[in-house]
Amino acid sequence: MIRRDRPLRRAGRGLYAALAAVVLLLAGSAASATPVAAPAADQASSGNLPGFSHGTVAVQGTTLHYVRGGSGPPLVLLHGWPQTWWEWAKVMPSLAEHHTVIAFDLPGAGESSIPTGGYDKATTAKRIREGVRKLGYTQVSLLGHDTGALVAYPYARDFPAEVVRMAVLETPLSGFGLEDMNGISFHLGLNQTAAPVPEKLIDNDDVSTYLGWLFSGARYPERIDQAAFFQAYASPARRTAGYEYYRAFAADATNNQANAHLRLQMPVLAMGAEGAFGPLVATSFSQVGDDVRGVVAPDSGHWIAEENTAFLSACAKLFFGPAGVPAPSAALANCVA
């Protein structure tokens, strides 16, 4: 998530926007996937897309909400903070033309239930992977943004035979650059502060002010459905879940560094926005992967799926599609499968 202040746009504009993008959220053992209708009481945060259906699946310690549609090889979408699966709404119809798209609400976010613990990204990845397998998929590709990218990494690292390709958007990796972003903006420290400090400082009436300030760092904030995300984080429990993902950053860094020898062998697309992280995403993930393709999304801030939907759709179509399809432009050259 990005917040850029005007003076810093002149001195290190891209770096600051990238660093501030760290505002991430990811936000039952038995079970089956149960199709459900979108809850009428929460339409703004859940949303409806033609051709997609809502469902839930029970996994260890929580229940995951997902939205699924399309046909073809499965592609799992993992959102960032302070968002829900709805951040992908603009790009999902295009992706579903060639893939079975499964967009999860991360544990504690959206309409997924709120677990009592396990907000480190390795545990979250295991929960998502369990949900994927209970839906009947044994091999998938992953597309993660912000905190979703931090979850995608241990999924691919710990279950490499089950991940065909992975794309990560707009964040360096914990232990490999993310910690260097601390101090660039007050919200990074605030969200990591032990309870109940952020819980006491940000109450229900402050949500639109706090999150609206963060979204204002976008290049095109008007393209983001901010009202839906204000509603999604109106609950104190949902906000705490988000803070817990931040509070786990140090543990994530330790885990990632300890397992860095398990280098990613599958193709990895590492995309940063022109107005945010830019090439820093590829610089970070190149330290843990052997086939990392760096891409910079033009004319976009941190929220690429919403700010430059056309570019992300075109890049994803190439990267997750068949080999040998040429790029239609130089900007998409590293998106080629």
TrEMBL record:
Signal peptide (residue range): 1-33
Q: Which domain of life is it from?
A: Bacteria
Domain AB hydrolase-1, residue spans: 73-308
Which UniProt keywords are listed? Answer: Signal
Known InterPro entries for this protein? AB_hydrolase_1, AB_hydrolase_fold, AB_hydrolase_sf, Epox_hydrolase-like
Listed name of the protein = Pimeloyl-ACP methyl ester carboxylesterase
**Native species of this protein?**
Amycolatopsis magusensis
